[in-house]
Amino acid sequence: MEPQAVPGQRDGRPEPRPAMELLVHGVGGATPQQMLGDARVCRVTGDATASIHRRTEDAEDRPWDERDPLREAYSWSNLTSGNGARALWLLLLPFMIVNVTHWMRPAVRGHGRTHHLYDALVRLIALSLTVLLVSGACVVALDALAWQCGSSATCAARTSWFSFATDGGWWSTPGRRLALAALLPAALTALLWWLSHRTWSTYESAYPPVRVRQSATEPAPLSLPGFWYGRRLVSRLRAAHTAAGLLTVCAALRSAAPTYDHGPEGGGALAATGLALTVATVAGGAAVLVLVTRYGRNETQIEDPPPHRAVTLLPAGCAALLAATVVHTAWDRPGWETAGALPGTVVFPVLTVAQGVMIVALALAALRLHRLARDTDRTALAGLGGPAVALLSCALAGALTGGATQRFTDWLTSGSQALHGPPVMLSWQAAAIPSLIAVAALLGAVAAVRVRRDRRRLAPTVLANYPRESAPPDDHRSGTIASALARARLTDSAPAIVGTLAAASLMLGVVAVLGTWGTGLTPSEAAADAPAPFAAVASLSESLGSWMLSVAVLVMIAMGRRAYRDRAARRTIGILWDVGTFWPRAAHPFAPPCYAERAVPDLSWRIATWVDATGGRVVLSGHSQGSVLAAAAIWQLDAPTRSRVSLLTHGSPLARLYGRWFPKYFGPHALRLLREEVPCWRNLWRATDPIGGPVDVPGQDADDRPVDHGPLLDPLHYGRNLRSPLPEPVLGHGDYPQDPSYDVERAHLCHTLRGESDADAPVSGGRSPGPPSDGSRRHGTADLTVKNPDAGPGEGPGQEPGVGETPYRR
Q: Which pLDDT score, from 0 to 100, does residue 773 have?
């Protein structure tokens, strides 16, 4: 008698739970159609910015099928490249870089005072960049245009659009010209505030999962419930930086009037009012410093206490102070004449020195933390990665601000010998740029020589990696593969490159400050009495540097526009951009927004709710930057949900980039915690991949498999054969699902989640000929070998190494 069917059972066994592969793409983005390998897809949840899709025919959840697994694709590319106008974010690159510095602390527990000092110094450096940017706008508008050009008949004749302020009318007095010109830096500050507020309401307002519970005595930093919810801190920092920008304009205006007010023709109410405004400006600056240094991130809880009302009113109060300063500056002062440069331009060397002092203090704090940290062998620059990057952000900000400022002032004051020109410090900074570019070019030449040398060394060994192929040696083919291997290794030289550029920037900055204060002249003027070759080099460097800095701004805009129109350019630029904007805005509120504060909650919510609704299992597959988002999302899950999720990473920069530069969050200890908190994790990597690499985490599966599987063969075949009649491409960082190991490891992860061994799993009968999960072509697993009649057993052009072989060695 046959057994009766039981509801919820099949063949007398419990019906298997649903299982799903959730795909997360990397830098450059991919459409849901490409990820799912089907033109017919539907949106399951989400909006036009970020969403989850399935194939149209996969409307219902179902058990795992190795022939055709259920897949979902999370598309987040619009978070960083959805609108071409976001190319303007490249102009905020220094703000992004200094914000990244906050997250580059060494991995050490405790020592709260040193941690607080490190964080406060980073926030102060970030504040100095805002002051620098607004100061540059003040030089253009107040000094060059209103103060110098407005008092010169020659310059006024060249600027007909500004003639209404130079024709002897009501606007022609110095104070009113300054009051009118102050609108430009004030408008710039307002624009930065608006951009920050607009992105803050879109990105930082994505509420994280509400069921986060710690399952370990030492939780990973990215598992803290408030890590991806920086709404309160960004609001406070935005208020502080907006106030600092407005106070910078106030200080620039106040630097002009005291000469008259405290002179023989001034005094009285004007002098007293000016003194009161100066005291108020200094008090506002002190309030900004207290706000920036006192308040940091609170990651242990989702909601911070609401900010004090004084914090929210600080920008409004500074705006009122600026209005009063404008009125006071525009007040009628008979006989007031302008001469030379605006006194406030001394801020540039002072600001440069202050940044240098803070970076030195930051380096000392980082060294102390590094000495106390664990697993420091792979940390970039021995813990000095943060200070080096902060130094580069200051150098870049000074170069871009100084270049644009000097080019405008040079154009405005050309042909007028009576005008003072741009601040001397900007001329020295511009003159240093060709030297810095020469250092970068030298580093590039060294890298090219290294690639060429490694290519020659590796080319003869390439064919040995394909022992089961009998293809004849091909010098061109071997050279192509060897070149890919050599170029991929350059990524490991990034710390040396960054350290060299930072050291060169520091030395050139010291020379610029000493030249400014020691001579008070521009480089060409200071070298006028030197031998002719030195004078010619100084003049050429100053002129060339000015033009190069001016062109750099336009090039950055053009690169940004191209990056969001051209896929190849977007993938190239996106490597740095997606790393920089992955981190929350913890130091600079005007930095480009953090897309992970939307993407990580999206993934966590989807996994948790789908597991709750179906009781199923999830294989979370992340490529490149998607693997970083996947790891962060897993850390945000509660322990019961996490026990039903396995992780498959490929082309992952978790250890190779993030682990070296952000050791506290992705260092060896953090990755070991991640491995302990998920049932199973496999990582695929290639030696030809310039971004991804091994994670070097020991395995804890039942069969004691290590996490890393690789390096994979790339290309899959050296020569032509029945399986590959045309040459196989070198895939490098892309198309990991094209490798047969991808399906094998994905099936293994699913079986492990279900408590099965690979031998217990149902036989799939081979892979279906349908498209893979990312829309690319794959090789089947059937044996299509054509034997060479002269070859021995096991030798043939179509055969390939078995799963798990590692033909490339580092």
A: 36
CA angle 633, 692, 383 (to 5 degrees): 80
State whether the Cα torsion 744-745-750-756 is positive or negative: positive
- Would you say 94 and 149 are in contact if contact means Cβ atoms under 8 Å apart? no
Band of pLDDT at residue 803, cut at 50, 70 and 90: very low
In three-state form (DSSP H/G/I as H, E/B as E, the rest C), the secondary structure along 546-611 is: HHHHHHHHHHHHHHHHHHCCCHHHHHHHHHHHHHHCCCCCCCCCCCCCCCHHHHHHHHHHHHHHHH
Angle made by CA atoms 689, 691, 696, in degrees to the nearest 5? 90
Helix (H, G, I), strand (E, B) or coil at 649: strand
Task: State CA 696 to chain mean position distance.
Answer: 24
- The H or E element spanning position 445 is helix 424-458
311 secondary structure, DSSP code: H
Burial 706-738 (b: 16+ CB within 10 A, else e): ebbbbbbbbbbbbbebebbeeebeebbbbbbbb
In the chain, the amino acid numbered 59 is A
Phi, psi of 404 (to 5 degrees): -65, -40
Report pLDDT digits (tens) over 48-63. 889 999 999 998 999 9
What count of other Cβ atoms lies within 10 Å of the Cβ of residue 11? Answer: 7
Q: What does the DSSP 8-state code read for residue 503?
A: H
Q: What's the mean pLDDT in 287-296?
A: 91
- Nearest one of 648, 733, 696, 669 to 810, comparing CA atoms: 696
By three-state DSSP, how is residue 623 classified? strand
What pLDDT is recorded for position 401?
Answer: 84
Amino acid residing at 480:
T
- Give the other-Cβ count within 10 Å of 96's Cβ: 24
Cis preceding linkage at 533, omega within 30: no
Task: Return phi, psi of residue 620, to 5°.
Answer: -90, 110
Give the list of residues 6+ apart from residue 761 with CB closer than 8 angstroms, or none: 66, 747, 751
Query: Are residues 372 and 663 in contact, defined by beta-carbon separation less than 8 angstroms?
Result: no
pLDDT band for position 1 (cuts 50, 70, 90) = very low
Rounded CA gap, 183 and 186, in Å?
A: 5
Does the pLDDT at position 131 exceed 90?
yes
762 or 778, which is more confident?
762
The DSSP bridge pattern shows strands 617-623 and 645-650 to be parallel
681 contacts 650 by C-beta, under 8 angstroms: no
Please say whether the beta carbons of 188 and 137 come within 8 A.
Answer: yes
Query: Structure pTM?
Result: 0.88
pLDDT at 514: 93
Residue-level pLDDT at 766:
34
Distinct helix (H) and strand (E) counts, the chain = 26, 10
Residue located via tokens 């610029």? 512
Average pLDDT, the chain: 83
How many CB atoms are located within 10 Å of the residue 8 CB? 7
The model's pLDDT over 327-378, given as tens digits with 9 standing for 90+, comes to: 999 998 888 887 777 887 788 899 999 999 999 999 999 999 999 887 888 8
Residue from 359, 387, 340, 677 nearest 510 by CA: 359
622-681, pLDDT tens digit by residue? 999 999 999 999 999 998 999 999 999 999 999 999 999 999 999 999 999 999 989 999
For the record, the structure tokens of 591 come out as 């930095």
Share of the chain above pLDDT 70, in %: 80
Instruction: Measure the CA dihedral 561/564/568/572, to 10°.
Output: 80
